């Protein structure tokens, strides 16, 4: 029988799949205060129905892949807020369950989100990777969360917004031992990469067993093609930038104007991107436009 990674690779070879958009910022738009260090993880505990409803909006907009609300869920971050490791395990599993429930009977994949070490710190270091930790230390920090999510019933792992070569190396070393399908997406806006080191890190990720796609997220839309330009890999490409607005970690607010441009989305698809959607501040309306563009393309294009 084909391995799950082979099945997903075949699905991507048939044509692009539409990702969802900014889950946390959609929840904020619904009136939820996510300014605490736990971000949307708090709602998994207090109001999982709100998370489910936000996921469902993206399904209705045409998303074919839902990314779970586990990006910010970590043992260190939640432990500081008084949660036990067992409670964090349950929260990680709940993130997958809630997304699966939101998908309902729709043909939608669930990708379990794995954010970087810096996301748990909530201090902006997820955009630099300047942690002062070794690859082995990062492997240990990520290990339990990866394994719990791998066993929680998701279709694949979404390794996302990774800001440095060291953290990519650490996560890929763990993925190689887990054997579950995954994508690896680096932060296109991180100062922790040079253009050369980003290309090298993504190429190494693409060679990791189980990795079905590599690319960039959480960057201005105009940065997507330059980030992928020199990448020559045998797996699918992915792109899900933010709206173009800039996150100010000091005051915890978004600044500037944003929006996904149809011509840019078309250019990513023309360049071979097979997983396409949005990150922070992209809305169900944005994803509906992306879905329309994907649907309008010839089969297999």
UniProtKB/TrEMBL annotation:
<feature type="binding site">
    <location>
        <position position="279"/>
    </location>
    <ligand>
        <name>Zn(2+)</name>
    </ligand>
</feature>
<feature type="binding site">
    <location>
        <position position="280"/>
    </location>
    <ligand>
        <name>Zn(2+)</name>
    </ligand>
</feature>
<feature type="binding site">
    <location>
        <position position="218"/>
    </location>
    <ligand>
        <name>Zn(2+)</name>
    </ligand>
</feature>
<keyword id="KW-0862">Zinc</keyword>
<dbReference type="InterPro" id="IPR003726">
    <property type="entry name" value="HCY_dom"/>
</dbReference>
<keyword id="KW-0489">Methyltransferase</keyword>
<keyword id="KW-0479">Metal-binding</keyword>
<dbReference type="InterPro" id="IPR036589">
    <property type="entry name" value="HCY_dom_sf"/>
</dbReference>
<dbReference type="Pfam" id="PF02574">
    <property type="entry name" value="S-methyl_trans"/>
</dbReference>
<protein>
    <submittedName>
        <fullName>Homocysteine S-methyltransferase</fullName>
    </submittedName>
</protein>
<dbReference type="InterPro" id="IPR051486">
    <property type="entry name" value="Hcy_S-methyltransferase"/>
</dbReference>
<feature type="domain" description="Hcy-binding">
    <location>
        <begin position="5"/>
        <end position="294"/>
    </location>
</feature>
<dbReference type="InterPro" id="IPR017226">
    <property type="entry name" value="BHMT-like"/>
</dbReference>
<keyword id="KW-0808">Transferase</keyword>
